[in-house]
Amino acid sequence: MINILMIEDDAEFASLLTNFLAKYNLNVTNYQDPYLGLSAGVEKYDLLILDLTLPGMDGLEVCREVVSKYDIPIIISSARSDLSDKVTGLQLGADDYLPKPYDPQEMYARIISLLRRYKKINEAEEEPRYALMLNENKEEITLNGKVLDLTPAEFVVLKLLIQQRGTTVSKEQILYDSEVFQFGSDGSLSVIMNRLRKKVGDAVKIKTVRGVGYKLLI
């Protein structure tokens, strides 16, 4: 489960985004008061979504304090359209700036992309427990030590599932993140998933999450 800290004083907006991200197993805890958010144990979270217009403390000051004390990716989510706010936020150490209004799906895609870059999970320590392993340097995937014979499309899909192991990966994310994976329909994606299931056999379980996407079970 990915845990996200959000500091956002618009309760209705926070609720909508929280409910949307919950569909993808992203657990969001929101604080309308920035002081409460800063005292909530920032280090427990995997990512911070930060508004700029907050009661009692400007969001840029919150950003400055978080960057000075914690190693956590920050996405600024703000209706403030002043370019200087965006520039200042990024200069302070925020990793991304998404102006409101935006499609929640875009926020989801940015969260996943940012978390992947941060590599919050130490794959070198975690992977030996699994039958299915990814070697990014060699661009190969092994099953119980044996290299799988995969097409380029199969490789990028299975690679994404491994990187997000244990969480649901949406069909949209697979298409969004896979440049060589140019499908025009869910049916084509289903064919690839069926081929992958045959290649990994009973050693690995790839679960279909109805209406959402797929999950590589631990």
Keywords:
218 residues, alpha/beta, Rossmann fold, Arc Repressor Mutant, subunit A, 2 domains, five-stranded parallel β-sheet, three-stranded antiparallel β-sheet, 42% helix, 21% strand
Strand content: 15-25%
The neighbouring-strand order within the major sheet is 2-1-3-4-5
- Global geometry: elongated
Count of helical stretches = 9
CATH superfamily of the largest domain: Response regulator
**SSE order, one letter for each helix or strand:** EHEHEHEHEHHEEEHEHHEE
The figure for the number of domains is 2
Radius of gyration: 19 Å
Oligomeric status: single chain
Number of strands: 11
Structural class per helix/strand content? alpha/beta
Unreliable spans are 124-128
Determine and state the CATH class of the largest domain.
Answer: Alpha Beta
Provide the helix percentage.
Answer: 40-55%
For the residues shown, what is the average pLDDT?
88
What CATH architecture label of the largest domain applies?
3-Layer(aba) Sandwich
Descriptive report:
By secondary structure, the chain is α/β, with parallel strands linked by helices. The chain has two domains: 2-118, Response regulator (Rossmann fold), CATH 3.40.50.2300; 123-216, Winged helix-like DNA-binding domain superfamily/Winged helix DNA-binding domain (Arc Repressor Mutant, subunit A, Orthogonal Bundle), CATH 1.10.10. The chain is built from nine helices and eleven strands. The strands form three sheets. It has a five-stranded parallel β-sheet with strand order 2-1-3-4-5, with helices on both faces. Strand 3 (47-50), helix 3 (59-69) and strand 4 form a beta-alpha-beta unit. The longest helix is centred in the middle third of the chain and has 15 residues, at 104-118. Mean pLDDT is 88; it is low at 124-128.
